[in-house]
Amino acid sequence: MTEWLISIEGTATGHTVALWLAIMAAFLHAVFGALQKGRHDPWLTRGAIDFAYCVMAAPFALFVVPWPEPHMWIIFLGAFLIHIVYKMLQAWAYTKGAYTVVYPVVRGTGPLFAVIGAYLIFEESFTLLQWMGVAVLLAGIFGLAIYNMIFLTAERDTLNAALAIAVLTGLFVALYTTYDAYGIRATADPFTFLAWFFMIDGLVMPFIAARRWWTMEDAPALGPLMGRGVIGGLVAFMSFGAIMMATRLDKVGEAAVLRETSTVFAAIIGWVFLKETVGPRRVALMALIAAGAVIVEMGG
Fold first, then answer.
1. Which of 55, 97, 181, 265 has the fewest CB atoms within 10 Å of its CB?
2. Alpha-carbon distance 222 to 226, whole Å?
3. Do 130 and 295 meet the contact criterion of CB atoms below 8 Å apart?
């Protein structure tokens, strides 16, 4: 499997595989966000998820994949620090605002800066048509956030704070997307990066969540919480693994933009499972997001 993936890097087959990996990552990332915003406290859910994927990744990191090259340790340290800040901001944003407001802003801020980062670091470039697609996609994403901000009534007292934190979170999405793309390209075996990343990345949030759970007056039962953590851990494996593999096989910028179709899936999940309001205007904005992604892909 590893040899085949490496053999298709930069090829037409690699481009096609990267496309479908990015779309799969989009759907799974929306599921992941809904799991964290669901009925449990976002900090507790994030801690349970991180604990689950740390435990699941450890045997693969230690006994299955090739050992990381010496230069990878500093890369893992950088990824660890970036993701810690990102997760703290994300959990904070979800405690302040509705999922369908916070999520589009986070995801809308990320791709623009990720494309810029891909240009600066990997010397990637977009055609004029692709930049038009980015503009259409971002118009849909931020239009969705503005619509939600105007018409939704839940959590309005903390809306401004939620939006500010969401923008900052989006900047860290761009940072980790670009940095992790560099990391997965820096090792001979991409699965070495993924296994070690998940093991290292899951070390801190469980302790923060445990401290929060211990001090809560009405702490949730651990069984359902850990069950959600296991499901979230598996989703994280597939979502993050898919987008990172896509950035190794093909352009980082295109993968980052295509992943942001997750806002369409997020709106559907928010409507069906979280009982948040969806109307024809939001459907039209979601179609705009999808159209932008198609333009980016077809314009390459």
1. 55
2. 6
3. yes
d(CA 14, CA 48): 34
What is the three-state SS of 242-257? HHHHHHHHCCHHHHHH
The mean pLDDT of the chain is 85
Taking the C-alpha atoms of residue 247 and residue 255, their distance in angstroms, rounded to an integer, is 6
| CA distance linking residue 24 with residue 230, whole number of Å | 19
Q: Give the span between the Cα atoms of 155 and 168, in whole angstroms.
A: 19
Cβ atoms of residues 61 and 199 within 8 Å: yes
**What does the alpha-carbon distance between residue 267 and residue 263 come to, in Å, rounded to a whole number?**
6
Spatial distance between the Cα atoms of 159 and 161, rounded to a whole number of angstroms:
5
User: Please, is 169 exposed, middle or buried when counting C-beta atoms within 10 Å of its C-beta (0-12, 13-18, 19+)?
Assistant: buried
Structure tokens at 93: 């944003």
Q: What is the pLDDT of residues 176-225, one digit of tens each?
A: 988 999 999 999 999 999 999 999 999 999 999 999 999 988 888 899 88
- Summarised one tens digit per residue, pLDDT across range 228-272 is 899 999 999 999 899 999 999 998 888 888 887 777 787 788 777
What secondary structure does DSSP assign to 132-161, as a single string?
HHHHHHHHHHHHHHHHHHHH--TTGGGHHH
Span 50-100, pLDDT tens digits: 999 999 999 999 999 999 999 999 999 999 999 999 988 988 887 887 776
Confirm if 168 and 158 have CB atoms less than 8 A apart.
Answer: no
Q: How far is CA 24 from CA 44, 53, 266, in A?
A: 26, 19, 13
Say how far apart CA 56 and CA 43 lie, in whole Å: 20
Q: Supply the angle between the helices 222-249 and 12-37 in degrees, to the nearest 10.
A: 160
